[in-house]
């Protein structure tokens, strides 16, 4: 696809302490991780990889393979190094970064922000004011490599794009409002607590019909619920 080699990298592991093994929690039609993988696989890219740690790889490998993803194993806590190692291994120049605790991640929004990122020649791009858990970050591999080479801050190695946000004079960062119909800035559909899980289960129960649930439908669902 074009001249720039693009990789969809989903980071996931089983070591969550607040909600143990949350990526394997069941939802209508599959588990949390499977739904994220299935949506992301619809993005046009050159590489699809699940990035995990040594303790999780044995369990997660089958889910990755079933959805057409390669498995890449790296450090548990140095997530930045996990990503840059994958960048080198898969020889990608641009990364679509997603996380395994977001089963409602939107492949359509990801495809749109990828296109805008390329047009604006940005280093890092994401939509704002969409429900937390539906979006991705698009980041240039060169920017991730610079972060790894220049940052010794453990926080910047755990949260891989923080170095870029902290250096806006150096990196072109595109933060743009999401499409009409997808705006709901105070709502979260990311999975961190049991109450998050119950909410996401309700969304799947009401909306899932064998295809990734669109952000438009999620926003409309919340508006209906608030009006009841």
- Number of domain units: 1
Looking at CATH, the homologous superfamily is Spore Coat Polysaccharide Biosynthesis Protein SpsA, Chain A
Shape by Cα distribution: globular
Counting helices, strands and paired strands, the structural category is alpha/beta
Please count the helical segments.
9
Q: How much is the average pLDDT?
A: 96
Return the CATH topology: Spore Coat Polysaccharide Biosynthesis Protein SpsA, Chain A
Largest pleated sheet: 7 strands, mixed
Uncertain regions: pLDDT < 50 for 5+ in a row? Answer: none
Q: Topology as H/E string?
A: EEEHEHEHEHEEHHHEHH
In the CATH hierarchy, what is the class?
Alpha Beta
Number of strands: 9
Strand percentage: 15-25%
Helical residues, percent: 40-55%
User: Strands of the largest sheet, in order across it?
Assistant: 5-4-1-6-8-7-9
Report the span from N to C terminus. 45 Å
The CATH level-2 architecture is identified as Alpha-Beta Complex
Radius of gyration in whole Å, from Cα? 17 Å
Q: How would you summarize the topology of this molecule?
A:
Layout: E1 6-11, E2 26-27, E3 30-31, H1 32-40, E4 47-53, H2 54-66, E5 70-74, H3 79-90, E6 94-99, H4 107-120, E7 124-128, E8 137-140, H5 141-150, H6 154-158, H7 162-165, E9 173-177, H8 194-207, H9 215-227
Parallel strand pairs: 1-4, 1-6, 4-5, 7-9
Antiparallel strand pairs: 2-3, 6-8, 7-8
Can you give a write-up of this model?
There is one protein chain. The chain has 228 residues and is α/β, with parallel strands linked by helices. The protein has a single domain (6-227), classed as Spore Coat Polysaccharide Biosynthesis Protein SpsA, Chain A (Alpha-Beta Complex). Helix content is 41%, strand content 18%. It is built from nine helices and nine strands. It has helices spanning 32-40, 54-66, 79-90, 107-120, 141-150, 154-158, 162-165, 194-207, 215-227; strands at residues 6-11, 26-27, 30-31, 47-53, 70-74, 94-99, 124-128, 137-140, 173-177.
């Amino acid at each position: 696809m074009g001249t720039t080699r693009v990789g969809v990298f989903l980071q996931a592991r089983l070591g969550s302490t607040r909600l143990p093994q949350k990526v394997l929690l069941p939802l209508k039609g599959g588990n949390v991780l499977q739904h994220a993988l299935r949506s992301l696989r619809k993005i046009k890219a050159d590489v699809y990889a699940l990035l995990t740690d040594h303790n999780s790889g044995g369990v997660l490998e089958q889910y990755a393979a079933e959805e057409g993803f390669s498995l890449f194993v790296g450090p548990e806590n140095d997530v930045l190094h996990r990503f840059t190692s994958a960048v080198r291994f898969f020889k990608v120049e641009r990364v679509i970064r997603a996380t395994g605790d977001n089963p409602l991640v939107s492949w359509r929004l990801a495809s749109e922000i990828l296109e805008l990122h390329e047009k604006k020649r940005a280093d890092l791009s994401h939509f704002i004011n969409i429900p937390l858990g539906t979006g991705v970050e698009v980041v240039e591999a060169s920017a991730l490599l610079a972060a790894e080479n220049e940052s010794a801050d453990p926080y910047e190695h755990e949260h891989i794009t923080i170095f870029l946000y902290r250096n806006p004079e150096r990196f072109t960062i595109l933060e743009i409002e999401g499409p009409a119909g997808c705006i709901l800035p105070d709502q979260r559909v990311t999975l961190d607590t049991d109450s998050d899980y119950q909410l996401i289960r309700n969304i799947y129960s009401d909306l899932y019909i064998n295809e990734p649930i669109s952000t438009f439908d999620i926003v409309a669902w919340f508006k209906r619920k608030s009006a009841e």
